[in-house]
Write a structure and sequence with these properties.
alpha/beta; TIM Barrel; Lyase, Ornithine Decarboxylase, Chain A, domain 1; 2 domains; 9-stranded parallel beta sheet; 5-stranded antiparallel beta sheet; 20 strands; elongated; binds pyridoxal-5'-phosphate
């Protein structure tokens, strides 16, 4: 009888190396590149229009595994498109990038545990600091730790209050192991230029009292603030861009070219059946067939991030034909009414045929001429009264990701 040997874990790893799923995310690297280049070009135009005096550099926000797109895959592309720094939410996210050989400067935008400072130092990861416990921990370090100071100007999440920032910065100056690489804050309402202006003025007050070294990063703008309130951050030299890179949240018309959704969602039919009229579908029979009807099931559910709240409201596409999802979305499986396919194509799809639940690239950009609505997270967000950020992060939990590249 074989004894448990060291081979077992190796075999287990190789078994799950290739995902065995008939539902997957498609990450369109062509759309990502299009977005990154469009954003960079437009921010440069805005800088020229608003008389920015300092050269602008761009931070790609790749926290939460690049909002579900895979930070290790997207970071090199963003670097090639001119993004020279990365923003993450934890030291672990930074280490994952370092482990993949990514050498760009990385800032952890949230608070980090004090005991992890030596690890951050060892891997050249910049930490965000803002309270006295950070100063105390820095004073105890044996190796240099690179930090950026977060100033609270109106978001009220983390940060040293702007009125108290001078004392904090002066105390920091006396700590030999603390290397200050920047000062920043965060817009709470990027699409409200007045609110942004007030936050900038609070940060500007801190900077006036504590002049930064030439070229030291100063930043406050996220995607929405960068495009909608350019005046409010024209004296900064870094913009932190997240959601726009992934093709969302910047309304059509703000940029000269529309951004393209990067995350797609597809699945293969796992069951095709014909059901009599008057039969209930899925839990609690929230959908009753109106006629003898073809139904198709896909192996995708709310455990994959397909929100249960979309039950009976979701639409997908099969060879250009729109189909409605019917009955409750369950944890792992979801049913569609295939009637429009049978009407248009003369027969139901076959087992294993692919449907698109979320479109990417140019296909996912609303065509203004026809007014047709593409299959996007924006449509889901509208139905669910939430934001695309939440939905895209939810989709990464269990689904395999496949990388594609549409034409740019
Ligand atoms: C501190 C900070 N900066 C920048 C961003 C990027 O924001 P956005 O994805 O809206 O561009 C975030 C995202 O939540 C953030 O928390």
């Amino acid at each position: 009888m074989p004894s448990p040997t060291s081979k077992t874990p190796k075999q287990t790893r190789s078994l799950i190396h290739q995902p065995h799923r008939d539902a997957w995310l498609e990450v369109d690297l062509g759309a990502l590149e299009h977005n990154a280049k469009t954003i960079k070009a437009h921010l440069e135009t805005l800088s020229a229009q608003h008389g920015r005096t300092k050269p602008l550099s761009l931070m790609a926000v790749v926290k939460a595994d690049a909002y579900g797109h895979g930070a290790v895959m997207v970071a090199p592309i963003l670097k090639a498109c001119g993004f020279s720094q990365l923003g993450v939410a934890s030291i672990d996210e930074a280490l994952q990038l370092r482990q993949a050989g990514i050498e760009l400067p990385i800032l952890v935008l949230s608070a980090s545990p004090l005991w992890a400072m030596p690890l951050a130092s060892q891997h050249h990861v910049q930490l965000t600091i803002f309270n006295p416990s950070h100063l105390k921990a820095l004073a105890e370090q044996k190796q240099p730790v690179t930090v950026q100071v977060k100033i609270e100007t109106g978001m009220h999440r983390i940060g040293v209050p702007w009125q108290e920032a001078s004392g904090f910065l002066q105390a920091l100056e006396g700590i030999p192991m603390a290397k200050v690489a920047g000062i920043f804050s965060h817009f709470a309402q990027g699409d409200n230029p007045q609110a942004c202006q007030q936050q900038w003025e609070r940060l500007a007050h801190v900077l006036a009292e504590n002049p930064t070294e030439a070229g030291q990063p100063v930043h406050i703008a996220n995607s929405l603030g960068a495009f909608n309130s350019p005046q409010a951050w024209q004296q900064c030299n870094v913009a932190r861009v997240g959601i726009a890179l992934y093709g969302y949240e910047v309304p059509a018309g703000v940029l000269p070219q529309a951004l393209q959704p990067v995350m797609g969602l597809k699945a293969r039919f796992s069951h095709i059946q014909q059901v009599e009229a008057g039969e209930g579908v899925s839990y609690n029979h929230t959908y009753i067939t109106q006629k003898r009807q073809w139904l198709g099931t896909i192996p995708l559910g709310y455990a994959d991030g397909l929100p249960r709240g979309l039950s009976n409201q979701l639409t997908a596409s099969y060879q250009g034909v729109r189909i409605a999802q019917v009955g409750m979305i369950t944890m792992d499986q979801t049913v569609f009414d295939l009637s429009p396919i049978v009407e248009r194509l003369g027969k139901p799809p076959a087992l294993g045929n692919v449907i698109t639940v979320l479109e990417t690239g140019k296909q996912a950009v609303p065509a203004t001429e026809t007014g047709s609505q593409p299959l996007t997270l924006s449509a889901w967000a509208k139905t669910l009264n939430t934001i695309e950020y939440e939905l895209m992060c939810g989709l990464r939990v269990r689904l395999p990701r496949i990388y594609t590249r549409s034409g740019i």
